[in-house]
Amino acid sequence: MVEVTFIDADGVPFAVTSPVGTTLMEAAIASDVPSIVGFCGGQCACGTCHCYPAPDWFSRLPSVTDNEEDTLKRVLERRSVSRLACQIRLDDRLDGLVVHLPPRQRTP
Questions:
Q1: Which end of the chain is more exposed for a tag (fewer CB within 10 A), N or C?
Q2: Which domains does the chain possess?
Q3: What does the alpha-carbon distance between residue 79 and residue 91 come to, in Å, rounded to a whole number?
Q4: Pairwise CA distance, residues 32 & 29, whole Å
């Protein structure tokens, strides 16, 4: 099992435990973490699992693929550490990962 802490835009932490091999997006959705939606089901197409892994964890993550980069071009509030949670598969090296979440997009 891998422990991950998601921190929402208001600073509220959500501690999650998930099996090795699960994507970060799947772990968040299974634990009802706000701001991670995953409309495309993890196909790297929608950007609704956009997140900000803590900078000290960034080097442990897999490299951004061209497909992920194309999708990240369309997300709101992109940062240098922006990633799609559907593209990060949890393994033992990521135990303790901290991920910050962008503000939730509100509809009028």
A1: C
A2: 2-100 (3.10.20.30)
A3: 24
A4: 5
Question: For 69-107, what is each residue's pLDDT tens digit?
Answer: 999 999 989 999 999 999 999 999 999 999 999 987 544
Structure tokens at 16: 């999650």
**Quick check: 10 and 101 in contact, CB under 8 A?**
no
